[in-house]
Each structure stands twice: as C-alpha cells, then as structure tokens.
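hey so i finally got around to running the thing on that chain from the lab meeting. sorry it took forever, my laptop kept dying and i had to restart like 3 times. anyway pasting the input first so we r on the same page abt which one it is
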Amino acid sequence: MAANDNDPAGMPDAPTTARASGKPVTGKCPICGAPRQAAYRPFCSRRCADVDLGRWLNGSYAIPASEEDPGEADLAAAEALADAPPERG
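ok and heres what got predicted. didnt touch it at all, straight out
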C-alpha cells in the first residue's frame, strides 16, 4: 500500500466506496458532525481523529462499573466454608 503524497498525516489511501455495495462512503464525523473524509475515516480531519484519541487516552470512553462492594459476597462465602464441619468420606 502506498501512502498518499497529499496526506499530511502520512496515512495510507483509503477506499472511497464501501466494499460490498460499491456505494460511496457517507456519514458524519462523530466528533464535529462534518462530512467524513476517506483519508481520516470515520473522522473528517486529523484534528478530530486526535481529539478522539485524546478522549481514549484520558479515559473519557470508559465502561461504567457498578459501585458494588466486590468483597462482600466473597467474604460471606468464605465465612460459611470456615464454619462448616469438615467432610469425611
């Protein structure tokens, strides 16, 4: 794959059509809403791609965790096992 000489980011050429349908790639940039550019897809520019990367690196795109005490159930199970008489076989 040859890099696009006009691309300041040095990114490889990207197709301008979807593979299966042959239709032009359309849509809006998820950061600013401008039309997508094939060279920066799914973004419109290097700036929006960098903004997105910054959000990933800052942890803005984190999956929320439940605020449940993780050790409470384990502690109860361990106490039940400790109080149980040993099994004899």
